[in-house]
Design goal:
alpha/beta; 7-stranded mixed beta sheet; two-stranded antiparallel ribbon; about 45% helix
């Protein structure tokens, strides 16, 4: 499926992995591609499942996607466009790579923030080969002009290139080879309806159970040649916040701790000691999470308190508190959002080993309205 111009680089395009990998990443500038240690990047890539059979969890999405890909191969056509939504770290990028591998097609990787102009998207689309898979991460952050161009490209495999300006401008239609777009988003609600409706398959990824994360860890430990007891796997999985990416990261940190201390077999005690050193507690809360809860409880008597005030109390930006700490704390029932501000829930007091005073109980009974929370 390689095209004649497959080796030609577009302006600002970066290729990772070489021709053997068949993976291209497109970005407008080097600043948008943060430097990662080669060894760490290779390790992350090695831990990714290569096919649907090796992919752990997301049973419903996995079965539906397998059916879509199998039908496409029987018809001898490119697969329908696929939209993956869900929180970060659950496997959206991995599934895009699996789709390309299952279809035996090259994979082009870019992201919504990297496509700020329609010309950026036109350059990527015009260089696609037949059957190629284009993965757009954070697709909801694509610019509006590029989004409008994508509508026609997805539906008719055609884009119109505008040449000239003003009254003398001319639209030149450019035919595109059939391709499969795989979009990933952490905020599906921000996708406009016309774009969402053009995807043939939409899958929402859920958080993993502890049992599923143990399976992920067992596979990763086998690839890393690590020895863990069942209790060791459970200890790491229980602190992974339902996210495979976090579980693999914690596994590597526990590996480092065991290596330095000369421990060959990692049990629950070893895993607990290692993760305690990295400030990840038994429930998966990290330093920022605990700082938010402790500020709510000790400085504001459980709330309610506004987001900006809470952020100042923990020395972070409001956006950091809202996007990094709050989702997990709310999901765990430790923090609540009310029209008057954030409050510490009874579970937060219990987790911190403190007794909840009566006025905090009254605050916890306030009506919840996330849209009006300051």
């Amino acid at each position: 499926m390689a095209g004649p111009d497959d080796n030609a680089l577009l302006p600002g395009q970066i290729i990772f992995g070489g021709e053997e990998a068949g993976v291209r990443r497109a970005a407008p500038s080097a600043e948008l591609a943060p430097a990662v240690e080669p060894e760490e990047r290779e390790l992350e890539a090695a831990l990714r499942p290569k096919n649907l059979d090796d992919f752990v969890g997301q049973e419903r999405v996995r079965k539906q996607l397998a059916l879509v890909l199998a039908a496409s191969k029987i018809r001898g056509r490119s697969a329908d466009h696929v939209l993956m939504s869900g929180p970060p770290g659950l496997g959206k990028t991995t599934l895009a790579m699996i789709i390309a591998a299952e279809m035996n097609a090259p994979l082009r990787i870019s992201s919504g923030p990297a496509i700020q102009h329609a010309g950026d998207l036109a350059a990527i689309l015009s260089s696609l080969s037949e059957g190629e898979v284009l993965f757009l991460d954070e697709i909801h952050r694509m610019s509006r002009p590029a989004e409008e161009m994508l509508y026609m490209a997805m539906e008719d495999f055609r884009v119109d290139i505008i040449v000239g300006k003003g009254a003398g401008a001319t639209a030149i239609p450019l035919e595109l080879p059939p391709f499969t777009l795989v979009g990933a988003t952490t905020r599906a609600g921000l996708l406009p309806g016309p774009l969402r409706d053009r995807f043939g398959f939409t899958g929402h990824l859920e958080f993993y159970s502890v049992e599923e994360l143990e399976l992920v860890l067992r596979r990763s430990a086998g690839m890393l040649d690590l020895k863990l007891t069942s209790a060791g796997f459970s200890e790491i999985a229980g602190r992974s916040r339902g996210t495979p990416r976090i579980s693999n990261r914690l596994l590597r940190r526990v590996r480092d701790w065991a290596l330095v201390h000369g421990i060959e077999t990692i049990d629950a005690r070893t895993a607990s000691a290692a993760l305690d050193m990295y400030e990840v507690d038994a429930r998966g809360l990290d330093r920022l999470d605990r700082a938010v809860l402790e500020a709510l409880v000790s400085k504001f008597n459980g709330g309610p308190v506004g987001l900006s005030t809470l952020a100042i109390a923990v020395g972070e930006e409001p956006e950091t508190v809202e996007t990094v700490a709050e989702p997990f704390l709310v999901r765990e029932g430790l923090l609540g959002r009310t029209p008057r501000g954030r409050i510490a829930m009874p579970a937060a007091w219990e987790h911190l080993g403190l007794k909840m005073p009566g006025n905090a109980v009254a605050a916890a009974m306030l009506p919840f309205d996330e849209d009006d929370a300051p």
